[in-house]
Write a structure and sequence with these properties.
By secondary structure, the chain is of the alpha+beta class. It has four helices and two strands.
Length: 143
């Protein structure tokens, strides 16, 4: 009902405060953020993949001369490849499952947030009711 300094808190201020300090809600938010990473990983398998390779080889003068020109003393070779998966039931199913799991995590987080807000609002109203009953009892006692 009031802060440590004694100033009254409105219902809105109380609810905002509850949302910022609730550890269970923070943990749930962390799960949602981690789930976004899982969806990204599932999607990454369906994106084009690039591979780059570079090889540098050096052999001594004697071996190069003994090969009669078939082997160079210094050799540099490189390769670049690009692959794209066009269709994979397993990968597409994995992405679909991760998206649905993420939606479930988001809905569970929102449900938890609303439950916390409801509980805090009920507690706030109970405090107001108790203070009102106390005030009425004091008035009755003085009468």
């Amino acid at each position: 009902r009031s802060t440590a300094g004694g100033t009254p808190l409105s219902l809105e201020q109380t609810l905002r405060s509850v949302l910022t300090v609730n550890l269970e809600l923070r943990a749930s938010q962390s799960e949602v953020l981690a789930g976004e990473g899982d969806v990204g990983k599932a999607r990454a398998a369906l994106l084009p993949q690039a591979d780059v390779g570079l090889t540098y080889a050096v052999i001594d003068d004697d071996r190069a001369a003994a090969s009669f020109g078939s082997q160079a003393e210094r050799t540099l070779s490189g390769s670049v490849s690009l692959t794209q998966i066009l269709f994979s039931d397993q990968l597409w199913a994995g992405l679909s499952i991760e998206k649905k799991l993420q939606k479930q995590r988001e809905l569970a987080h929102e449900s938890l947030r609303l439950d916390i807000l409801r509980d805090a609002a009920v507690a706030y109203l109970n405090v107001l009711r108790t203070l009102t009953v106390e005030r009425i009892q004091k008035n009755n006692l003085s009468v």
